[in-house]
Every structure is written in structure tokens, then in C-alpha cells.
């Protein structure tokens, strides 16, 4: 780029930053800060990399853990253009449908575990979970048990940003500003299977016992006849990639079955290969009655999500009397979004991206990242498939944490950025969820950048 071109680019960036600061409200961002810290304008992306403001960054977060097939694929662009030319939109209300939605629903049903065969489309993970909250109400009223309204969720969980899904979240900071109370909405939180934080001296099996006992205790306290459903992310990504002990999820499913409670697997992050299987239910050996999908469903080429229910659940919801499901979105099952999701699934399958995550690149990623446990500040590295959380500790032995307002994780992630790598600080952990196309050399680069960043920040703290 010559001087003139660079000057023009800098002027354009300044213009976008100005427009952005004045008019664009960002998700999960302090609006007051937008005036003071100009946004980083990302204007291009390809493969594992995003570009902006004259630099290219290795995106070890795959956007927000969603760009499973990598960025900027020409075949995805072609599908979008072709579908827009053929059928830019028609709704799916009443008896209308389109070829892409029909095929996508069938493809999801074929890939999904067990009897999860019926798909409702929405636009975001939040909307998919919201859809299930309403379906759960219908399910129990049509089953003649309308008193089953309580929902059990877990600490540290993240299920969405709509009014109802907000109270499912296990992080008070997301709930309190809106004057919401989970208990008022019959949502009840239980301990998460977060061994590093809550496991103390227990081994994995003993800790699974404790975490399951917490759910069982809550069910008993509420009265099993009042409990409608349990929501669970198989791996709690947004909280720093909390991976449950092996026994936990199968036992949770068993507990729910015993009491006739519906189990919802929120596979918004885990679905479509992230854990090395199409769905984490396969990785962790359990089956839910309902699941939600988003992110990897289209690799974020399109805002599309799905709420999937089992044959048995659908049978009840159909009921005996004719009644409309009073729920839906204008762009539910949008043909262009569905076509992009179909092509994304084709790519995941044709390039064997799910299997390589399980068998080769995933184990390599985990073993290289584990080496970071020898670096300063690292309490624990958790990894499954191509998702990892690097837990930051002030004291490795006692697991003491730094105060959050010391922003240690932010500093580490900033130091990674200076080395050209994007990772994501959340609470006391750094999350890494790269596109599934990642190569060994890129894993090495990320681990080296993280190692250097940890040394640098630890040096500043001393
Ligand atoms: N569930 C989980 C497990 C998530 O991680 C997220 C988003 N990070 C959501 C639901 C909400 O999805 P969306 O942001 O698309 O509404």
C-alpha cells in the first residue's frame, strides 16, 4: 500500500469510527466507553484471519466461537447469491415452506442424536432457547400438568439475551441491571460442574456426585411435580469452557428421566463439531429431549438457529385438539439462511472437519495448550475438541483468583493481540475456540503468543 492509499484508508477508518461512536450501540459494551475508545474496524476476513486498520490477526476465537468452517469462503458467497436470485424470501407460516428449510430440517434430524427429529427455525441462539421455554409451557399444559413451570439452570450458564433467557443465565451481572428476578420467573439455579472452582480436594467422580446431588436436592426442594425442565450447556463456553466430569451429563439425563423432567441441551456453541462430534451429546454420552443450535449451524455466515425436539415431545405438543403454536418470526426458516446452513454442513462433512477435530487436530490443540500450565498465572487448562479455557490463578496451589477489577485476563488477551492473535477474556479465564480448519502451525503460533503474553503480564504484576 502506497502512502496515498494508506492516508485514504486512515481517513476512511476515522470516518467509520466517528459514525460508530455517535450512532452504533454495541452488544455487551459500556456505551459511555464508546466515546473514549474508538472501535477497532474489522473490514475483511478469510480462513483463520480477520483484517482491519491495516493489520491481519489470527482469530483464535472464530468470531464468538461460531466460525467453524473459517471465514470468507467463495462457495458460501455463491450459495448466497444463487439463492437470492432464485428465492430471496418467502415465509414459512401456516402451510408454506421452501426447499432449503425442508432439506435443512431433515439434515439436522439425520445428524441429531436419538429421537431429536423436529426442527423449529429462529434467528439467534437466544430466540431458539426462548422458543423452547414457550414449548415447555405448552408441553406441560397439554400433558395436563400445568403446575410444572419451574426451570432449573446452572450457575455460570449463558443461554441468551431476551427477557426470559436472561434469567436462565447464571451470572447475576447480566440479570440485576434489568430488575429481573429468576425466582419470580420460576427459574432456579444450581451449582455448575466447575471442578476447578468448586471441586476442592474431590476427584472427578466424587465431584460429579456432589454436582448431581445439587440438582437432585433442588428438584426435591421444589417438588418434582413442579419442575418442567433443566437447561444445560454440555460445555459452558461463555464461562471459560467448563467441562463437566465424565459421569455428570449422563447422570443428569438419568435424573431428569427419573422425574419425567425435560432435559434441554443448549448446543449453541457445542453443536456442529466444536467438541469433536456433530453434537456434544455424542461426546459426553447422553441424550436430551430438546436441544438448541446456532453458531456452527451456519458458521455465522447467516443469522439462523434451531430449536429441536424429540418425537415424544412433539407428540404431546400436537395434543388432541387443533390449536396453533402461537410463536414464530418473520424470518424463521429464511431460504437464504437455510441454504447457507446446508452448504456449511456440506463443507463440515466433505472436509471431515468434525472427525479431524476429534482424532487429530483437537488432541494436538489440547496437548499443546496443556503446556501452558507450566507458565506463570495458569491455574488450569481445560480443553475438549477445539474449545479451550485457560484459567488464570493468582496462586496455583490454593487456586486463589485475582480480583476481577485487576483485569488480568484482559491484559493477557491484549498482550496476545499485540502478537497478532485474538483470544477472549471471560471472568477468570481466557477462551480459545478457533475455526475447525486450524492447522498445527497455527496452534503452535497461538500457544507461543499465549506463553509470551502470560510471561509479560506476570512480569508486570510482580
Ligand atoms: N446459548 C449459548 C450456550 C451461547 O453461548 C449463546 C451465545 N454465546 C447463546 C445461547 C445465545 O446465542 P445468540 O447470541 O445467538 O443469541
TrEMBL record:
Molecular function terms, GO-annotated = pyridoxal phosphate binding; transaminase activity
Spans through the membrane: none
Give the cofactors, semicolon-separated.
pyridoxal 5'-phosphate
What the entry lists under Pfam families is as follows: Aminotran_3
For the keyword Cell wall biogenesis/degradation, the answer is no
One GO cellular component term, please give it. Answer: cytosol
The record's InterPro entries line, in alphabetical order, gives: Aminotrans_3, Aminotrans_3_PPA_site, PyrdxlP-dep_Trfase, PyrdxlP-dep_Trfase_major, PyrdxlP-dep_Trfase_small
**Gene3D superfamilies linked:** Aspartate Aminotransferase, domain 1, Type I PLP-dependent aspartate aminotransferase-like (Major domain)
Q: Which UniProt keywords apply?
A: Aminotransferase, Pyridoxal phosphate, Transferase
As for family, the record states:
Belongs to the class-III pyridoxal-phosphate-dependent aminotransferase family.
Protein name as annotated:
Putrescine aminotransferase
Amino acid at each position: 500500500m502506497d502512502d496515498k492509499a494508506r492516508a485514504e484508508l486512515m481517513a476512511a477508518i476515522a470516518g467509520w469510527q466517528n459514525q460508530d461512536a455517535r450512532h452504533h450501540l454495541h452488544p455487551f459494551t459500556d456505551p459511555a466507553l464508546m466515546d473514549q475508545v474508538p472501535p477497532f474496524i474489522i473490514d475483511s476476513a478469510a480462513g483463520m484471519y480477520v483484517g482491519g486498520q491495516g493489520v491481519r490477526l489470527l482469530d483464535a476465537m472464530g468470531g464468538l466461537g461460531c466460525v467453524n468452517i473459517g471465514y470468507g469462503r467463495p462457495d458460501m458467497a455463491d450459495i448466497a447469491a444463487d439463492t437470492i436470485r432464485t428465492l430471496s424470501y418467502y415465509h414459512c407460516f401456516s402451510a408454506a415452506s421452501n426447499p432449503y428449510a425442508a432439506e435443512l430440517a431433515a439434515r439436522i434430524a439425520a445428524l441429531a442424536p436419538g429421537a431429536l427429529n423436529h426442527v423449529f427455525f429462529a434467528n439467534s441462539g437466544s430466540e431458539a432457547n426462548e422458543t423452547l421455554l414457550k414449548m415447555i409451557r405448552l408441553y406441560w399444559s397439554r400433558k395436563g400438568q400445568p403446575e410444572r413451570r419451574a426451570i432449573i439452570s446452572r450457575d455460570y450458564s449463558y443461554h441468551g439475551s431476551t427477557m426470559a433467557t436472561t434469567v436462565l443465565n447464571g451470572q447475576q451481572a447480566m440479570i440485576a441491571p434489568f430488575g429481573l428476578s429468576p425466582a419470580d420467573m420460576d427459574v432456579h439455579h444450581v451449582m455448575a460442574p466447575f471442578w476447578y472452582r468448586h471441586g476442592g480436594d474431590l476427584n472427578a467422580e466424587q465431584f460429579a456426585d456432589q454436582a448431581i446431588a445439587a440438582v437432585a436436592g433442588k428438584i426435591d426442594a421444589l417438588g418434582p411435580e413442579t419442575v418442567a425442565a433443566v437447561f444445560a450447556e454440555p460445555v459452558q463456553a461463555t464461562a471459560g469452557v467448563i467441562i463437566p466430569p465424565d459421569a455428570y451429563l449422563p447422570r443428569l439425563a438419568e435424573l431428569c428421566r427419573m422425574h419425567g423432567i425435560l432435559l434441554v441441551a443448549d448446543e449453541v456453541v457445542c453443536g456442529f463439531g466444536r467438541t469433536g462430534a456433530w453434537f456434544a451429546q455424542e461426546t459426553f454420552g447422553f441424550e436430551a429431549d430438546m436441544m438448541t443450535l446456532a453458531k456452527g449451524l451456519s458458521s455465522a455466515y447467516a443469522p439462523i438457529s434451531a430449536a429441536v425436539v424429540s418425537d415424544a415431545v412433539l407428540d404431546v405438543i400436537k395434543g388432541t385438539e387443533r390449536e396453533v403454536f402461537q410463536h414464530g418470526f418473520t424470518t424463521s426458516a429464511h431460504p437464504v439462511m437455510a441454504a447457507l446452513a446446508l452448504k456449511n454442513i456440506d463443507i463440515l462433512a466433505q472436509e471431515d472437519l468434525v472427525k479431524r477435530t476429534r482424532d487429530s487436530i483437537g488432541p494436538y490443540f489440547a496437548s499443546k495448550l496443556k503446556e501452558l500450565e507450566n507458565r506463570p498465572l495458569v491455574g488450569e487448562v481445560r480443553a475438549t475438541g477445539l474449545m479451550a479455557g485457560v484459567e488464570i490463578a493468582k496462586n496455583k496451589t490454593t487456586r486463589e483468583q485475582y480480583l476481577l477489577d485487576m483485569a488480568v485476563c484482559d491484559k493477557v488477551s491484549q498482550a496476545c493481540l499485540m502478537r497478532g492473535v485474538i483470544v477472549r477474556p471471560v471472568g477468570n479465564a481466557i477462551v480459545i475456540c478457533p475455526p475447525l480448519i486450524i492447522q498445527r502451525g497455527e496452534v503452535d503460533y497461538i500457544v507461543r503468543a499465549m506463553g509470551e503474553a502470560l510471561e509479560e503480564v506476570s512480569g508486570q504484576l510482580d
